[in-house]
Amino acid sequence: MNNPPLSEPGLVPAAGQVPRKSPGKIALFRYYPRLEDGLPYVSLGLFPTLVEKLDRVGNAIGLPGLYAKRDDLSGSPYGGNKVRKLEFLLGGALRAKAREVITFGFAGSNHALATAVYAKQLGLASTSMLLPQVNSQYLRRNLLASHHFGAELHLYRNRAALSFALLCKLLRGKMKRGAFARIIPAGGSCPLGVVGYVNAVLELKEQILAGEMPEPDRVYVPMGSMGTSVGLALGLKVAGLKSQVIAVRVIGEQFANAAKAALLFDQTARFLNKLDPAFRRLSLSEDALIVRGDCIGEGYAHFTRQGVEAAELMKKEAGIILNGTYSAKAFSALVLDAQSQALRGKTVLFWNTYNSRDLSGITAAIDYHDLPGEFHRYFQEDVQSLDKTDLDR
Question: By the 8 A CB rule, do 391 and 304 touch?
């Protein structure tokens, strides 16, 4: 049984509860007040993010009903989809009285950078434990910016080496500080992090009710660690919206697939239900979240020609920058569907997950030799051929 749809922003109670009339609270806490007591949270972002109609882009691909959710502007000095997750994850670190957070990703991880940025704002030390990936210009920028924001950076040849190093670091930290560092999973994709995108859909619902856009038929988003796409799917059910999430896989199927998405969906729904029984237990239907694997190209972080062309179109017609690893691949799937007439007559929302805040003033002042030696090769070796135009700046 689904939660009742929200018919007016800030007024309709969730499952019979009386919502708190406080415009300063996030939507999730206004509809489910008991969650505010149970969930750790710290305000980091600039919300709500803009819903923008992309007329010129839509006309270029034959899709007049095209909109974008501008999570690229979700925070300052750094935006993107990770800010919503970190409001809860770093809130958890503060509640646990942690002094350090450790997170993971590949060498160019946007999530690791976002964690470094906002951990520093909160007075927390941060460590990024990273794995190799194909070279790119955004990777270089992210490493330099992470260094600027005080992240302790490490690169490991494989997952086994990283796991051993993590164990050693946790034990050393325990001996030195008397407490373990707080672990934040890769991509921030655990039930607590997913909550950020449940809240995001309630935010979107209120924008729809305010007339900023019609209810979308489809929502396109990249799928890596799955937290964003799963949070959207759960949020849409909670909000009573019929939109279908098209999750465009950008990583190997063993890491992101429909079965794992359903498990994370169930874990998050159970987690929220336990904190507030008014948040009813929900299940993920097969047609609510469609995982697409046809735009990944050679694999994670390998740019594709279709993705580069989609990014060029978005930058030219809307001034919005996309990233060849994530958002460009998701938008290329949308373009393909529009050109095949699969989206004819539909309202489509592209959820932009990539940061668009300019960090060049920060990164230009840093010498890459200041980074640990294992990262120097990314600045000495050429970037991949499809990244020559530096589209994401």
Answer: no
pLDDT in tens, 115-174: 999 999 999 999 999 999 999 999 999 999 999 999 999 999 999 999 999 999 999 999
Q: Among 145, 143, 147, which Cα is nearest to 105's? A: 143
Q: Is 348 left (phi over 0), alpha (psi -120 to 50) or beta?
A: beta
Domains, the chain, with CATH or none: 27-79+190-352 (3.40.50.1100), 82-188 (3.40.50.1100)
Q: What is the pTM of this model?
A: 0.94
Tokens linked to 84: 């919503």
For residue 266, give the H/E element and its range.
Answer: helix 258-275
Q: Which two tokens stand for residue 319?
A: 């001034």
CA distance 147 to 102: 15
Sign of the Cα pseudo-torsion (70, 321, 117, 180, in order): positive
Tens of pLDDT along 72-110?
999 999 999 999 999 999 999 999 999 999 999 999 999
In residues, how long is the chain?
A: 393
3-state secondary structure of 366: coil
